[in-house]
Amino acid sequence: MKRLLTATAMLLATAAMAQAEGELQLFNWGDYTSPELLAKFEKETGIKVTVTDYDSNDTALAKIEAGGHGFDLVVPSANYVPIYVEKGLVQELDLSKLPHHGNIAPEWVNVDYDPGRKYSVPWQWGLTGMAVNQTVYSGDINTSAIFLDPPPELVGKVNVTPEMNDIISLTTMYLGGELCSEDPELMKKVRDKLLEAKPKWVSMDYGMTEKMATNDVMASVYWNGAIFRSRLQNPDVKFGFPKEGFPIFMDQVMLLADAQNVEEAYKFLDFIELPENAALISGFARYANGISGSGEFMPADMKDAPEINIPEEFKSKGVFLKTCTGKAQDYITAIWTELQK
Amino acid sequence: MADRGFSVSRLPGFTPTAMLVFVALYLPILMLVAFSFNAGKSVASFEGFTLQWFVKAWANDHVKDATLRSLVIAVVAASVATVVATAAALGTTRRKAFKGQTFIYVVINQPLMVPEIVTAVALLIFFAQIKVLTGYQGLGYLVTAHAAFCIPFAYLPIRARLEGMDLTLESAAADLYASPWQTFRFVTLPLLLPGMIAGFMLAFVTSLDDVVITLFVKSAGQDTLPTYMLGQIRRQITTEVYAISTVLLGLTVVLLTAFFLLTRKKD
Amino acid sequence: MASEAETRQVAASTRAGWLLSTPALVLLAFGAIGPLLIVVVYSFLLPGKYGNVEWGFSLDAWRGILFTRDIFDDTLVLADAHLSIFWRSVKLSTLTTLFTFAVGFPTAWFIATRPQKQRAFWLFLITIPFWTNLLIRTFAINEIIRSEGLLNTLLLWLGVIDRPLEIIYTDFAVFVGMTYVYLPLMVLPLFAAIDRFDMRLLEAGYDLYASRWQVLRRIILPIVKPGIIAGSILVFVPALGAYVTPRILGGGKQMMIGNFIELQFGQGRNWPLGASLSVTLLVIVTAALLVYVRFANRDREVNHG
C-alpha cells in the first residue's frame, strides 16, 4: 500500500512539473503533426511542444468546452471555427505578434468562416473525392456516381468513409441541391439515393490509404492526401474530383481563450507561417497548406501530384463544408441513422 | 488423486476444444509479431526481415511516452481496484444477508452496465469542473477513472473464489486462538490469492485496453497508447505500433515466466 | 423473535459488510456513478445547437428512443432504425456469450484439471494475448479474415474454396471479433470456480453409475454456477456496449448500441437522446442483473435448505 501511495505521489508530481516554462500544449488530429517541425521549433526557440491527439472535431470541441483541459492551441476544421468563436472558446489574435501573417495565401485570407484571418492560422487543407483502382474500372472517375450509382465493375467494391457531413454533402450536390438544405423533398431524395446505393458498398470505413494500396478495396470516397500516399505505393490508384461538387476542408490553428502559454503560442503560430516550415507540415501528412511560397520547399513528389493540385476545370466545384443547424442538422442525423441501422 | 488411472475429471472433447482455443488465441498474435519484422512498408504481405520498425518506434517520443503512461496507469489502477475489490468481496460474501447487500453488489457492477461513451461524457463534465476549481490537471483523474471501471473486473473473480471457499479452515484457525488478522493473513489470503491474481490481471488488461474514457478524461500531454492509436485510425495502424506491441508482448512473457518460475520454486 | 445475541450478530455483520465495501463504493461514486447523475439530468434537457445541451426541460429525448417524428411529414412513427440497432446488439451479444461459454468452459476445465504446478502456466497462456491492446488485436483479426488475408489465402491454396470468403464487414465478423476479445473474461471466472471444485464429487457420481453427461449436468454445472454467472455478465454487458470491434470489423455499415450512442454525442449532436438511450440501456441491464442475483440467491437457499 505504501509503495502504491509513493507511486501515486510521484505521478502527481511529474504531472505538476509539466507546467514548466518554455512549454506549449498543442491539441491536434492524430498523426497530423510533423515531428521534424516540432524538433526545428524547439531548436530555434527552446520551447518544447507536447502534442495530444484527438480523432474528431466533436470530441475536441466537447473537451475544450468543458474546460480545465490545459491546452494552448487547437486545430479545428473550417466548419467548427465559427463555433469556437461564437462560444468564446478562442481569443482574437494580436496580429502585431505575428509579423509573418501576410504570408497566408491571398485566397485563404478572406474565408467566410474567419474573414481576415483574425482568429486562425492555416494548417492544412484538402478535399474529399473518389479513389478508384484503374485495373478494375477505367471510365470517368470525376463524379460522385462512383459511390452513388456505381458502374457494374465497382458494385460491391466501393468503400464509403463514415463521415456524415462529407457523405450527405456529396449526395446533396450530386442531386443538384444546396448544402444544409431544409427542403424536405430534396432531403428525401438524398435519403432514398443513399439507401439505394448502400447495398452496392463493401464497407463504411477509414484506413483506406493501406487498403487501396493493397487492392483490398477497389474504390472509395476518401481524402486526397491519403490517396496520394496510396498512389505512391500502388500506381493503379487514381483520384477523381466529383464534377457535381466536392467538399473542401481546411484545418487551422486557433489560440484558446484559457491558454496558459500565450507567448509561446504566438511564437509557434508565427513559425508555421514561414513557407519552409509550412512545407514541413505538408511533407508529413501530404496535404497542401495555405502559406504562399511553401511550394518550393515541398518534397519533389508533391509539387506536381495530381491529387494535391486541383485541375483548373474542377477548381470551381469545391465547396466549403458548412455547419448545419436546426432542421437541416435533424435531417442529416436522421438520414445517417437510417443508413446505418 | 484424481489424475491417476481412470481420470474422472476428463470429459470427452474438452481437451481438443481447449487446444483449438489456444491455437486460435495465438494465431493473430503470431501474425502481429511476424509483421513487426516485415521489411515491406505495408502490413499486407511479407517482404523480408528487418528491425527498422523497432528502431523507428524507439525514436518516436510520442509513442514511447504514451506506452509508458499506459503501463503506469494500468499498474496503479489495477492495484487499487484489486485491493478495494478484495475488501468489498470479503464484505459482501460468506455472511448473513444484510441490508443493502444487493445494493452494494449492483453499485460495484455498475461500470459494467454502462457503455464506455456514457461514462466518458459524464466524467468529462464532472472532472472538468474539478480541474477548473482546483487547477490540478495531473494523471490522478485518469487513474481514478481507470481504477473505478476496473473494480468489477477484479471483484467478480474474487467473489467467485470466495463464495465456494471452505469455512472450516478459518474456524479451525480461530479455534486455535489466531487473531482475525492472523486468520486473514495466513488462511484466507493464501486461499484467495488465485482469485486476486485473476482479478488483478483482468483489471490490468481492462485498463490497458481503454480508449473512449481515456480520450475524454485526458488533459494536455496525456496520450496513452490506445488514444494514440485511435488518433491514427484515419490512416492505418502503422508497423511501428506492431513493433511496440511485440516488445510489450516479449516483456510480458519474460516477466510472467520469471514470476512463474519464482513461485514454483517456493512450492 | 430473534434473540439479542442474534440481533447483535446481524448488526455486526451489516457494519462489517458496509465498512469493507466503503473504499470501493467511494471510488465508484467518484469515478463512475456520481457523474452518471449528470447523464440522467441531461436526458431531460434540449440539445444544443453544436452539441452539448441547452437548459430547458424536455421529454423529446425520451420519446425519441422509441418514436421518431418522421422528418418529412412530421407524423410520429415507431423508430424502426433504433429498434433494429437494439436487436442487432442483443442478438450478437447473446451469441457471443453463448459461444464464449461453449469454448471457454472446456478450456477452463482443461486448465483446472492440470496438475497443480502446471495450472499457473496454462492460465498465463490464456492471458498473454490479452496483454496486447484491444485495437491491435482487432486489427490482427482483420488481417486474418479480410478478403486477401491469411484465412482466405490458405483456403484458396488448399483448394477448399475457389473464391475468397466474404467474412469481413459482416455481422459474423463482429461476432468472431467479440468472441476473441471477450473470451478470457469468460475463462478466468470459470477457472476460479472450477478450481475449487472437489473432484471427489465426480468419483461419487461415477460410483453411482451416472453417465458423463449426467455428471456434467447434475454435479459440475450447479457447482460452478457462480463462475458461469460472473463470466456471462463479464462478456454480455461489455459486448452489448461494444464500440471498437463493430467499428473495425463490421466496417461501420451496421451500428450497435455503443456506436449509436456515440453518434449522438459526436456527429449527431443530440446529447439528450444519447443520454436517454444510455439510461435506458442502464435500466434494462441493471434490472436483468437484479433478477439474476435474486435468482442465484434463491437457488442457493433451496439447495442448502
Please state the oligomeric state of the protein chains shown: heterotrimer
What profile does the largest beta sheet of chain B have? none
**Helix share, percent of chain A:** 25-40%
| Uncertain runs of chain A | 15-20
The CATH superfamily title of chain B: MetI-like
Q: From the 3D coordinates, which CATH architecture of the largest domain in chain A would you assign? A: 3-Layer(aba) Sandwich
Describe this structure in words.
The complex is a heterotrimer of chains A (341), B (267) and C (305). Chain A is of the alpha/beta class. In chain A, strands 1, 2, 3, 6, 7, 8, 9, 10, 11 and 12 form a 10-stranded mixed β-sheet that branches. Chain A has a two-stranded antiparallel ribbon with strand order 4-5. Chain A has 2 domains: 2-125 and 249-303, Periplasmic binding protein-like II (D-Maltodextrin-Binding Protein, domain 2, 3-Layer(aba) Sandwich), CATH 3.40.190; 127-248 and 314-339, 3-Layer(aba) Sandwich (D-Maltodextrin-Binding Protein, domain 2). Chain A is built from 13 helices and 12 strands. Chain B is 74% helix and 0% strand. The model of chain B is unreliable at 1-5 (pLDDT under 50). Chain C is mainly alpha-helical and 305 residues long. Chain C has a domain at 80-269: MetI-like fold, CATH 1.10.3720.10. In chain C, 73% of the residues lie in helices and 3% in strands. Chain C contains 13 helices and 4 strands. In chain C, the strands form 2 sheets. Chain C has a two-stranded antiparallel ribbon. Chain C has a two-stranded antiparallel sheet with strand order 3-4. In chain C, a hairpin with a 5-residue loop joins strand 1 and strand 2. In chain C, helix 8 packs antiparallel against helix 9 (212-223). The relative contact order of chain C is 0.12. Classes of the chains: A alpha/beta (341), B mainly alpha (267), C mainly alpha (305). The A-B interface holds A 1, 4, 7-8, 11-12, 14-16, 18, 25, 27, 29-31, 35, 50-55, 59, 62-63, 66-72, 206-207, 209-211, 213-214, 216, 226, 233 and B 41-45, 60-62, 72, 75-76, 79-80, 83, 121, 124-125, 127-132, 136-140, 143, 215-216, 218-223, 227-228, 230-237.
